[in-house]
Specification:
The chain has 313 residues and is an alpha/beta fold. Strands 1-2-3-4-5-6-7-8 form an 8-stranded parallel beta sheet, with helices on both faces. It has 13 helices and 8 strands. The protein is globular, with a radius of gyration of 18 Å.
């Protein structure tokens, strides 16, 4: 239970935000046009999305089909629709270890943007410092589909040591079975850890899968974060409530709300154009995932500030 003064402050923040309307807006790679019911507070952060800008930065060969119309101008329309102003841009698999599109997007979006890069252990210290100076704050390991992965588990530990020296985290896009397989490795990493998409426990087991307990144990050590993102990845029933994702998210928020951040996962790679989710609906899920006594602002504001180094709200 948070302090009464903090709760009142957060409620006031939401009340102030409510006077800043988000307008109906058509956005590529997103269903619907209406704004969310939940009003984003000032400095609300979308902590997980991707930029694809093949006209300026050619994609690398990959079996996964990349989304189209997913560059910075299109993402600004999503921000206008849902009301977020801060953002964390994550290099997607279609760029392999080419982080130029991510770094360029951070530069375009300015002080309100941070990046998460994909690198190999062969990256030099100078290259990592350049990424840090460009706004990168973490290294991503997308291991969920080994057939299309551009990184491998044996790269994790050496890069974790270098990330710790930079004050960065390692970000994992893995499924629950991989969390179990990598548990001993994850427990000994010196850097902070971030799990994409609620660590994606297999369904229908969900929070009863062994991976959830492993992630909870890592959180309890005080150096692990979870992204409340990918509702459609964590639900068989689907919209509007994504009930399985609801259960997973609520369990994490109850355990450690101070270690949760939210992400849209726009432009929703892996989903065909006729199956894109409604981003306003995804944002509104926070109203169900986060208890009223906590309220969303820490997850949208203070938590991203702590993890990514944004200025204090």
């Amino acid at each position: 239970m948070i302090a009464r003064r903090t709760f009142i402050k957060n409620v006031a923040t939401l009340a102030i935000a409510a006077v800043r309307p988000c307008l109906a807006q058509q956005v590529s790679n997103s269903a619907g046009t209406g704004p969310p019911r939940l009003k984003a507070p000032a400095n609300a952060c979308d902590c997980h999305m991707h930029i694809y800008d093949p006209d300026r930065f050619p994609l690398t060969p990959n079996p996964k089909v990349a989304p189209t119309n997913a560059a910075v101008p299109q993402y600004r329309l999503l921000q206008k629709r849902i009301g977020t102003t801060r953002v964390v841009i994550v290099t997607p698999r279609n760029y392999a270890t080419d982080n130029r599109a991510t770094v360029d997007a951070v530069a375009q979006l300015g002080a309100n943007a941070r990046g998460v890069a994909v690198v190999h252990p062969t990256a030099t210290d100078a290259e990592l410092r350049r990424l840090r100076d460009a706004g990168v704050r973490g290294i991503r390991f997308s291991l969920g589909d080994p057939a299309t992965a551009v990184v491998t588990p044996d790269m994790v530990e050496p890069l974790s040591k270098r990330a710790a020296d930079l004050g960065w985290h390692l970000q994992f896009n893995v499924d629950g079975e991989q969390v179990v397989e990598l548990a001993n490795l994850l427990r000994r990493l010196p850097s902070q850890i971030v799990f994409d998409h609620m660590a994606h426990p297999p369904l229908p087991a969900g929070i009863n899968h062994a991976s959830h307990g492993i992630v909870r144990g890592l959180i309890d050590k005080g150096r692990t974060w979870v992204k409340l993102s990918g509702a459609y990845i964590n639900s068989n029933a689907g919209p509007p409530s994504y009930p399985e994702a609801l259960t997973i998210a609520q369990a994490f928020v109850k355990a450690a709300p101070e270690r949760m951040v939210w992400g849209s996962d726009w432009p929703h790679p892996g989903l065909p154009n006729n199956k894109k989710p409604n981003d306003a609906l995804l944002f509104d899920l926070l109203s169900e995932w986060v208890p009223h006594e906590v309220t969303p602002p820490p997850i949208l504001m203070q938590n991203p500030e702590a993890l990514y180094g944004f200025g204090k709200s």
